[in-house]
From TrEMBL:
Source species of the chain: Pedobacter cryoconitis
Name of this chain's protein: DNA-binding LytR/AlgR family response regulator
Gene3D superfamilies attached to this UniProt entry: 3.40.50.2300, LytTr DNA-binding domain (2.40.50.1020)
Domain annotation Response regulatory: ranges: 6-119
PROSITE patterns to which the protein is assigned, alphabetical: HTH_LYTTR, RESPONSE_REGULATORY
A GO molecular-function annotation: DNA binding
Domain of life where this protein originates: Bacteria
Lineage start: Bacteria, Pseudomonadati, Bacteroidota, Sphingobacteriia, Sphingobacteriales
Domain HTH LytTR-type positions: 139-235
UniProt keywords, alphabetically: DNA-binding, Phosphoprotein
Amino acid sequence: MMKEIKCYIIDDNQDAIDILASYIEKTPGLELLGGQLNPLTALNYIERKLIIPDITFVDINMPEINGIELAELIEEYTNIIFYSSFTNYAISAFETTALDFLAKPLSYNRFLKSVEKIKKTQVDTDPNTSFFLKNLKGKAASTFQINFQEIIYIKALGNYIQIKTSAENLHTIYMTLKSANENLPKQDFCRISKSYIVNLKHIEIIKDKVVIMKDTSKLNLSDNFKREFTQQINAWSIG
């Protein structure tokens, strides 16, 4: 089964981001990671792998760095589709490794044609989305498979960790929180304290220094981890 294509938008116009975001969100097979108004901030997120998009939609006429220059810096991390009202840049755009050039104003029909063309050329190169672990809870140890996306949070218990999943299960594993953090997809998980790693997709709301998960768990955000957590949340934001 083909994985969802993860999409990111870089454009200094919020309205343009909103239109493209709405197209992505209503199209099966696509996942919107976020959008960024500042191209240098987006460059930082992508180079640090806070955001790992399959396709990045890039405007061309932006302050500080134009889209073609930006594309040359991020093309090793992501595929590029230019999204601009300056059609005179189209020839220059295709001299890069860009997959397509979408002219503004963009119709949904034109967007779909580009997406369908890209889907036909995409190879599912997604890394492992699950792993096998040995559950030490109870008298007899058991080996089980867990999908990364099912994990709500991971709690440190000395040299052990406790994994809470969306199936309301708790798994106790012989592993340190540091080791778990190194083996999880950085884009989806973030450490918020010495005791907890959270799955960003399972966050319901953030209030001050409390992270409330979709299962209603309330986890404290430590000052030592607040900066990195905030950067990762901002990377997922639209605009």
